[in-house]
Amino acid sequence: MPLPYKLIATDLDGTLLRRDETISERTRAALAAATAAGAAHLVVTGRSVPWTRHILDSLDYQGLAVCGQGAQVYHAGEHRLLTSVTLDRQLAGLALAKIEAETGPLFLAASRDGLAGEVLVTPGYRIQEGPLPHIEVDDPAELWAAPLNKVYLQHPDLGDDALARAARGVAGDLVGVTMAGEGIVELLPLGLSKATGLSLAARRLGVTARETVAFGDMPNDIPMFAWAAHGVAMANAHAELKAVADEVTASHEDDGIARVLERLYAS
Hints:
The protein is α/β, with parallel strands linked by helices. The chain has eight helices and 14 strands. The N and C termini lie close together (9 Å).
């Protein structure tokens, strides 16, 4: 019997991971059954490699992972970075100036390139709880001192949707703008998305878009859904993602991925 999909692409936060950063036994079993049947599982996350590696290691995940919003293709089993795309810092600086002229001063963070790329955080920026290594800096100029994958924006008053719209409106011709989670609005290299990294990783695996099912929960997953044959939004997903999904499953707290995989890969 042919496989329904040869590649299962899953986001991490709000999708594969529960709020406590664990994966349920039911979801682990469903993924194991699908991979035993011949499918490949590919993690596709907005987190950069240094913020993803500990999760992959805890899962004993040995395959490829797409990290940094598509900027990085990482071989987890070999702890090796296969591809990496960096942000043009001059363009990003110009974009930031245009955004702040529109919104007022922002709180900033930046993710440096590389396997051990630090995340630098300026005063006021709220980092999410968890084992996410970062370095606090007082001078925003330090953010631009080395190659970057992305810049994070937060506003003292504007919500994430409003901030992303404002940034896209005044700087969308210079940089990519995406929202990856609560308090996570990002500036990326123009044209970069999860679909970019997913397509590169899929090519390495010998799998096409028509053979891919993707799971996600936030607007940064929209390009991944557009690329894959079948996009599944979690019940907890952002309305923009649900609007373009082929299917909505249960939440990340209620084995949403497992429910779909059990149906698709039932023996």
